[in-house]
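Sample entry was shown:

___
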Amino acid sequence: MEHFSVIQTLCRIGLEGTDPRFRKQVERLRDRLRTGGDEKAAAALDRLLAGVSSEHSLTPSAVEVSRLLVTGDELTANIHPPADRETSVPLAEVILDPGAGRPAPIYSETLTMALDAMLGEWKQVTTLREMGVEPSRSCLIYGPPGTGKTLTAFWLAAQLRLPVINARIDGLVSSFLGTTARNIANLFTFANRYRCMLVLDEFDALAKMRDDPHEVGEIKRVVNTLLQNLDARAGTGLTVAITNHDALLDPAVWRRFENHIRIDLPDERTRFAMLNAFLRPLDVDEDVVRTLVFIVGARSGSFLKNFADALKRILALSRSDVSGTAILAAAKALVPRLSIDENQTSAASMFVNDEATFVGALLHSGMPIRQASVAKMLGVSQSTISRYAQDYAAREAPREGVANA
């Protein structure tokens, strides 16, 4: 939708009031956007409505809480971050609305509990101070690529309605002696001046182990400067660092972060929720989604999003009815393009090359999938599916016996 960012801002301002009639109109707009196929805009309004409901249930509001938690001047669009003196590349980007245009994250139950606990601290500052303690102000998010670490950092900022100062590694890191350390100091000085969440993405580029024999002496100066600035910011604002390579971090860096949150590849239940969401606006049967989850295996949220988008492209171009059969046919054409059949025993490889074994493995995977659904998806009789399952069980029984011996 053209000018949606302006409409979203107007909705946010209106929802800050308590008039239920305004909320109803925003809900109507969301529903019409979804019906019209604009799922991205509809999801943005969903987050907005959910966030406002949450804020109204809190006393004080999220805005007031964030003011207690983070001090400083207000960031505006007219404020520009500092730049590297030699290259003029900005040291950071200022993101005033970190939730805008980004999908709502989908987490496992364990990860949801961890993030809720951290947000609970940040949203109940007064309660903690009455007990003589402060909420934690820093978090290190780490894990494999594509698991939603940066999205999580921005989501946390959006929950507190704080703007983000997002560090740019290409601006911070310099080949000139001493410049990287100076850039880090300038970045923190800038961030400490404003109410914001400072996000340090690709953190390992700055915080590598100082005893790494492959690094030159300059890394010690950089890490020492980083540690000093993290210490100085500890009582000023919120800081979130993100890395795919936690093993490279200097041990002293870990102690500067009060929360260490690992975001792993999503579990089976979370992958199901992700694919279900990513396949919208398609109305896909749950057994079809479970089958797709089994085919792709343990993959990141980013991979699942690309997989779902690619499926929708194939279905759109084929102009066929969206059915379980059509979706599996599209998946079979897609698997070789996405390099997910790494070995002959993977579900993806069996799906493409050995239908009988695939069906047997699927039905013995523990997923609650009905044989009738599988038969319909593959266009074969239910008796054939039953035979596949029985043959698979007969082949696997001797192997299980050997393994348990």
